[in-house]
Known about the structure:
The complex is a heterodimer.
Chain A: H1 6-69, H2 71-93, H3 97-107, E1 112-120, E2 125-132, H4 135-146, E3 151-161, E4 167-175
Antiparallel strand pairs in A: 1-2, 2-4, 3-4
Chain B: H1 2-63, H2 65-74, H3 81-95, E1 98-108, H4 112-120, E2 130-140, H5 142-153, E3 159-168, E4 175-185, H6 210-218
Antiparallel strand pairs in B: 1-2, 2-4, 3-4
Helix pairs in contact in B: 2-6, 3-5
Amino acid sequence: MVNINFHQKNQQDESAKKKRIAINGSFFVSILILVISFSIFFGLKVFHNNVKNEAASIKGQMNEELRSLGEEKISRTADFQKRIEEMENGISRNKNPKEIMSKVESLMTPGVVLTSYKYDSAKKTLALEAVSDSFKIIAEQILSLKSSSYFEDVRVPKTTRDEEGRINFSVESRLVFETN
Amino acid sequence: MRLKIFFFPIALVVSIVLFIWFISPEFSQLKGDKSELDSQKNILREIKVKKQNVNNLNASLDGNSDKEKLVLEYLPSVEKEEEIINMLNYSATSSGIALLDFNADIVKDSPKSFKAAEAEENKAPEVMVRKTKVKLSLAGSYENIRSFFDKIYKIKRANDISMVNISSQPESESLLAEAEIYFSYLPQIHLSMENELSDPIFSQKSFNFTVADKVAELTSENNVSKLEANPGGRSNPFIP
């Protein structure tokens, strides 16, 4: 009796079928991978081109907006603003010399005569030279200046008596005032 | 059939190559371009807002032309030395003092406050205030000298009386005064489109005219007569 191995034949067919399915499957997966890869690549290319076009269009719009505005208008605006800023700085920094002179007038002691008045706005200093007949009057004058909140660091660097017997003295001080 | 076996690894290799050499660089370039596009969109939006502001600011200047004129007169774009002389002469004659000596020097502005302000705002080198330094000596009574300085302080021209030196003369009631005054001017500002409206003013919707009102109030009393050219003409300029 001849033995026929049907079972083995079936197994081989089954294995060949499985192999075919696997190969076909991998083929489709490969196609899919390629399709996806190329789709991503071309998609990116198209999107990138759109971005570039949009950027160019926005650049054009920017130039158009600026052109339509005109340099004259921009310059006029910036020029006026700069001027008012500088004026504000100047006005708040400067002091009317008349105000300082009036302050000194109001603090003068009878018997003291000014011979020199030196005001320096940058250093905010005031140097006075004066003459009087009495040391007591000079002391009162210095006290008068020191008692004012307008003057600070009041000093008397020099006191001399002249040929006529009058006393010459100088006073240096720093001015304290609020800027406008 | 055998070809089909090799197809998968080939497809894989092609895909990897595509990703490494083409997709990845394209993507990173796209990312950069996209962020630049977004920033350009923002700039465009800003430009539109600033354009509106500039139009509003210009309209505001048109509506306040008297204030604009006053500001340009108070801080002119050119030195106008002749106006300085005219103003000094007016202030001296109307105060009753004698103007003895006068000389003018042009100095670029140097006060620290201006430079510090610019440094703070991180501005590029730009148009700066220039000053004409005038040294003068005059003679007159104390009251008249005081009035002279008051008038100078109130003239329609930005100035800074930086030094006043008054001294009495032996055997004379008249006092001698020396002064140093800085008259300011600001050269015209010309902005180009490259500036892209970077100045902070373009973010504002209106001007603050307070300083113009202050100047109008300050200079209201002082009316220096307008200077006009007088070309009389003479055949021999060396003969009076």
